[in-house]
Each structure stands twice: as structure tokens, then as C-alpha cells.
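Our example pasted here:


***
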Amino acid sequence: MFRFLTHVNYKELSLAHLGLWGGLCLLLTSCFAGLPPAVTPVNVRIPLALTPTVLSDDTPLSTAQAAQPESAYTPVALPPGLGDELPVMSGICFESAYDAAGRIFVLRSAEDHIRFYDLADNSGLCRQPVTRYPFDFANGRVLAGGWSRGNGCTARHDVTDYQRDDTAKIITLTARFITDGACLYELVRPFWVSFPDAGSYDIRIVVN
């Protein structure tokens, strides 16, 4: 079965094995894992064998970042005020995103973002280091999201509900993951959103 990372740059990177991202869960209030890369034309992926690498909690932070990518992708229709941040995570390779699918990450600071990339780099699952695209966390901006996977020809996310309770300080964003067509492809679709003035809010993203 062929594999595709839909609507995002296909640069080599990976996140980590489930045990590693269980540790990240303690740092970022979410978790996920990874798979090894193999690349053929048209961004087809064929899986290779996986050898997980476990990191310690004192992995040093790295501050190197790349310029914002100019990637071509289908944007997600979001409620006013929210930002579609798919390009920020476009340095994540298919294999990493595939294994991370189904997990939600909430990043509240540049330190969270750097640590997220560092754990990916040190997993040893990709051929090249992460391409680190920056995100501006100023004024309480929060970056949250993850990946979804399924079988078909194309994949997308449709937002079905958005609630912001300023009294309870809870934000809930609900989306539906949809695949179309009968192709025998494994697809991975990113869903990353920025929330303004949300640093002290409980952010909940539900993907059905």
C-alpha cells in the first residue's frame, strides 16, 4: 500500500516512537510517535524497518530555525480569528506524522516548540534533521493540532464546531476528518491551528 502526506511539503524529519512521545506528553499535555522514511517519485512512501531511539528528559534545546515555508496546500476553512498553521509543521516527514496521527499537541511557548523539534531530531528515525519553521507566541498565541490518517485518494478536515468560553477559559474546536475515493493509499493530513489570546485557556481539539 502506498503512503502520502497530503497538502504539505515533504521534507525529511521524524518524530519518535510511542514511548518517547509518552514523555513529551508530560511536557506539552499531549503525545505521539514515528515511522521510518522511504521516498519514491510523487511523494509515495514505502515503509522500512523501525528502530526506535529513546531520549532522556534533559535533551538540550536547539534554537536554529528556518524561514517560513512557501508551501502549496489546501487551506482549512476556520472560524474568524483562528489561523491555519499547516506551513509551520511542513518540515515533519510522512513517517513521523503517520505514527503521530490521532494525537493532539498544544504548544504554548517557543520553548515548547523547540523541545518538540528537538525530540523529533533526536529520535533518529529520519534521514535529515527537522526543518524548523518559527511560530510567534506573542500576546498569548497558542499553536495546537496534530495529524489524521486514513485510506483513499484525498483527505481533508472540515471544522464542524467552535466554542470559546471566556468565563470558564475553555476553547473547543471540533473537526471532521474526511477521505475521498477508493485509492489504496494511506494518507496523512495535518491539522494545526493558532489561537489568539489563549495562553491561559484549556484548548481542546476533537477530530472525528
